[in-house]
Amino acid sequence: MRRAVVFGATGGIGETICQDLARAGWSLYVHYCHDQPKAEKISQELMKEHPNQDFMTIQFDFASDHQQMKQFIQSLLPVNAVVFAQGITKYGFLNDQKLTEIEKVIQINLTTPIELTKLFEATLLKQDFSRIVYLGSVYGGQGSALESVYSATKAGLSRFAQAYSREVASTGLSVNVVAPGAVNTPMNAMFSKEVMNEVQEEIPAGRLAEGKDIAYWVKTLLEPESSYCTGQTIYVSGGWLL
Fold it and tell me: Which residues of the chain register pLDDT less than 50?
């Protein structure tokens, strides 16, 4: 039975990733940080639709220390794939941000995913095939003013995946980044309708992405047939900012 961990499963993109992977036959760990009711709802709905697969909710705080991370990893059954769909941003001028806010964005978006990757490696390498996919951003390729730290973390994920993939390529573990452009998710609720309309007008495809546009590429990268694709950042942006 193929099993994956989806971090950030209660987010707009994460939930759709869970739905797509479940339809493709994956059993899942449905991760949440704070929103347990939503994680439970996702898991229960997936169990009804796919009764021959397992769906378990797991709680983990990306601000955890190293010992807590080790205990978390040890509590899990073996997995074939890990999807990092969590992420936060802090919108505003760098000079207006507190150092604690900057550190939090870096930890949740970059530092903790790298540490978890290290801890997951042993179990992933024992599988016939294994996969890691990070959710990056178009801003990792074209930095965004007022989101400089966020942009740095997403660029860091792409370079980390590129480098780390070369360390493990011969083992059957592939490591890639799916980098969305502007997506119609609650994360963009901070922006006014007028601002989002302006963004949409800049996108050659003429619309914002939906969660399914991103989940498709995550699902594809988790298939056994995708083994020769590794170290890549796949921009799913409708042609925006490329």
Answer: none
Domain of 98 in residue numbering reads as 3-236
| DSSP3 helix / strand / coil % (the chain, rounded to 5) | 50, 15, 35
Assigned domain for 21 exists: yes
Identify whether 241 is part of a domain.
no
Number of structural domains found in the chain = 1
- 77 alpha-carbon distance from chain centroid: 20
Is 242 part of any domain? no
pLDDT tens-digit map of 81-98:
999 999 999 999 999 999
What's the CATH number where 225 sits? 3.40.50.720
Place of tokens 């150092």: 99
pTM over 0.85? The answer is yes
- Cα 100 off chain centre by: 23
Cα separation values, 90 from 108, 112, 147, 187, Å: 12, 17, 7, 11
Task: With respect to residue 86, please indicate whether it lies within any of the assigned structural domains.
Answer: yes
What is the Cα–Cα distance from 108 to 226, expressed in whole angstroms? Answer: 28
* Long-range pairs of 114-120 with CB within 8 A, sequence gap ≥ 24: 114/160, 115/66, 115/69, 116/7, 116/69, 116/73, 116/82, 116/84, 117/82, 117/164, 119/69, 119/70, 119/73, 120/73, 120/79, 120/82
